[in-house]
Amino acid sequence: MQDTKIFIVDDSPIQLILLEKVLQREGFIVEAFSNGPDLIQSISIEKPDLIISDIHMPALNGFELIEEVRRFPNGEKIPCFLISTKADTVIRKKVDAIGADGFIKKPLEFESLMSVIKDLLKESQLSDAAAC
Fold first, then answer.
1. For residues 122 and 41, what is the distance between their CA atoms, to the nearest angstrom?
2. Which terminus of the chain is less hemmed in, N or C, by CB atoms within 10 Å?
């Protein structure tokens, strides 16, 4: 997990700090953003290994963020998953429709969060190796 960079975005400062601390404690390099446009600006400079985004944010919501990420060269190869306090059928269908790699309902449970992260990173590494 060393050298694995994760970008996280959430407009809730408390959620952002908690998620950042948990991921750093697990050995990830974390860049935290309070809004989608700042993450998009950073991704044009440096590609993360994984993106975790809240869905409900002003300026650029999580769905729009993933659509923007997918427009970057090789953006479709960056695993992206969404988090939200709402998990109704409409949300879940939209998560699938936009091509998000996963969804977790808040409040986040450490075990399921780490399981999703590790699975997505493993899948990403396998697809990168297959492309070589």
1. 26
2. C
Please, is 70 exposed, middle or buried when counting C-beta atoms within 10 Å of its C-beta (0-12, 13-18, 19+)? middle
Q: Which residue has tokens 């963020």?
A: 65
Taking the C-alpha atoms of residue 61 and residue 81, their distance in angstroms, rounded to an integer, is 13
Partners of 53 in the beta sheet?
Answer: 9, 82
By the 8 A CB rule, do 53 and 8 touch?
A: yes
- H helices of the chain, in order, are 13-25, 36-43, 62-71, 89-97, 110-131
Domain ranges, ordered by start, for the chain: 5-131
What pLDDT score was predicted for residue 16?
Answer: 96
Share of the chain above pLDDT 70, in %: 94
86 half-sphere exposure, CB direction, 13 A CA radius: 13
Q: Is 77 helix (H, G, I), strand (E, B) or coil?
A: helix
Hey, what are 36's tokens? 């989608």
Q: What is the CATH number of domain 5-131?
A: 3.40.50.2300
- Output DSSP code: residue 76: G
